[in-house]
Amino acid sequence: MTSIPSSSDGFAAMDRGLKLPAHCTTVTAEDLRVRLVLATDLDGGIEIDASDVESIGQAAVQLLVAARIEAQAGGQRFAILDPSPAFVDRIQRCRLADAIGLELQKEDAL
Length: 110
Known about the structure:
This protein has 110 residues and is α/β, with parallel strands linked by helices. It is built from 4 helices and 6 strands; from the N terminus they run βββαββαβαα.
């Protein structure tokens, strides 16, 4: 998959996807939407690096859920890579881990 171009909005291009900025707000949601649309138009899977996320708003979360649905419908892989604790917390509090495809490690009961 080709790189998705980056700009000065905090998003960084990766070889197969994009890296979310520290603060995914309503202001950055439009750019995220455009990048996700571009990613679904390319062959291969979509990879979202969420390692730097400190906060993520409703609009960005909705876009990620929609992108996963679109990727699945098109037979593409969709993965959230290295999600930060803040990202995981937000997704869990919204009860969207399954919808976004966030695979959480389950702690073994001792």
